[in-house]
């Protein structure tokens, strides 16, 4: 059973991101402040949910949240910042986009930089423990998946509508055959053989 609150503050924002481990596309972050009585039987860590259930939850979260915001950190900025800093920057931008300022922030994972003067706590596997982080994980994932399906139309050979930019065998085979696109992260090891030195 996911908990509704960590801090005791009424305006507690949960934040999470999607797409850190991908070879292409953006890191997408979301922040959500839920009402204290919010509950939904389906809501869980987005990785535990089917795509269908994530799509069911998305409009419910958006409708019932006191505030929510989503931010995109595109591949060039991911390359520039590194993926951890891109994730934290994305979460900061999402929190900054909330129409209500939170009194406390709970963050999925164990790394975060303070946002303004707002107290925060990092929670490992927080998306499986707290409703607001789970809600943020669902929004980050659904927005990112929709974006990957959109850019798939232009580059169908990578099958992003299915693999969403993650390093599957099929995705790597397509990179090997067709090379990298503008959507690929240049600082990521796109192919295992990039590790081998040319002597």
Describe the protein.
By secondary structure, the protein is of the alpha/beta class. It has a single domain (12-152), classed as 2-Layer Sandwich (Nucleotidyltransferase, domain 5), CATH 3.30.420.10. 36% of the residues lie in helices and 15% in strands. It has helices at 51-64, 75-81, 83-96, 131-152, 160-163, 169-178; strands at residues 12-18, 27-33, 67-73, 104-108, 120-123. A five-stranded mixed beta sheet has the order 3-2-1-4-5, sandwiched between helices. Helix 1 (51-64) packs across helix 4 and helix 2 packs across helix 3 (83-96). The chain is globular and about 55 Å long. The termini are far apart. Mean pLDDT is 95; it is low at 195-199.
Please indicate the count of domains.
1
Work out the helix count: 6
Architecture (CATH level 2) name: 2-Layer Sandwich
Helical residues, percent = 25-40%
What does the main sheet amount to? 5 strands, mixed
By CATH's scheme, which homologous superfamily applies?
Ribonuclease H-like superfamily/Ribonuclease H
Radius of gyration, taken over Cα atoms and rounded to an integer in Å: 17 Å
What series of H and E elements makes up the topology? Answer: EEHEHHEEHHH
Strand pairing plus helix content: what structural class? Answer: alpha/beta
Instruction: Report mean pLDDT, rounded to a whole number.
Output: 95
**Total beta-strand segments:** 5
Strand order of the largest sheet: 3-2-1-4-5
For the record, the CATH class is Alpha Beta
Gross geometry: globular
Classify the beta-strand content into a percent band. Answer: 15-25%
């Amino acid at each position: 059973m996911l908990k509704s609150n960590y801090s005791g503050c009424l305006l507690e924002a949960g934040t999470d991101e999607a797409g850190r481990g991908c070879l292409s596309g953006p890191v997408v972050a979301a922040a959500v402040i839920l009402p204290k009585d919010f509950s939904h039987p389906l809501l869980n860590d987005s990785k535990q949910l089917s795509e269908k259930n994530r799509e069911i939850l998305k409009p419910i979260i958006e409708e019932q949240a006191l505030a929510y915001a989503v931010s995109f950190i595109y591949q060039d900025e991911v390359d520039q910042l590194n993926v951890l800093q891109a994730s934290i920057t994305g979460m900061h931008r999402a929190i900054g986009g909330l129409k209500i300022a939170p009194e406390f922030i709970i963050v999925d994972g164990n790394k975060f930089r303070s946002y303004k003067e707002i107290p925060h706590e990092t929670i490992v596997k927080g998306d499986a423990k707290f409703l607001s982080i789970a809600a943020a994980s669902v929004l980050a994932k659904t927005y990112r998946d929709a974006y990957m399906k959109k850019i798939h139309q232009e580059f169908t050979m990578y099958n992003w509508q299915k693999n969403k930019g993650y390093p599957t065998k099929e995705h790597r085979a397509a990179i090997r055959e067709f090379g990298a696109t503008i959507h690929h992260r240049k600082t990521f090891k796109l192919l295992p053989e990039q590790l081998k030195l040319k002597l």
